[in-house]
Amino acid sequence: MSERDAVEREVDSCLSQQLPLIDVREVTLVGSASSATLRVVVDHPEGVDHGVCEQVTRALQSVGLNDRYGIEVWSPGPEPALRTRDHYLQACGHRIALRIDDHGKKRSREGVLEAVTESGIRLVTPTGVLDISFIDIRRAYDREPSAT
User: Fold this and answer.
1) What fold is seen in the domain 3-74?
2) Strand partners, 132
């Protein structure tokens, strides 16, 4: 398991226990190993303001993540990341952008998310329909999120 995957699990565990209404949209390690910053993008049913970011920061500090990383907490912005199956389900019918691993090559794809299966997604692109496995998706963003 990579360091990023391990940290992502730690963040998920911490926030699901301490702040169950927080939806973790993205977990990224930025910078060098000796001075890395943990960037966590979160959403909340009532929106994300400074108070929500502060609560998330304190929760992450309470499990010692600030001993290893600088911590930044961000709102999802205009194109929220798609990280979980539920995120993809919420984005059905929307235009999404993907970075995928296509047999060892990183590729970008964009299209309308038509369906979500147990193992992946169906994307309608100008050149045809693609079935993409979740394990091949490196990053995904909702280009037209619903207004909340």
Assistant:
1) GMP Synthetase; Chain A, domain 3 (3.30.300)
2) 121
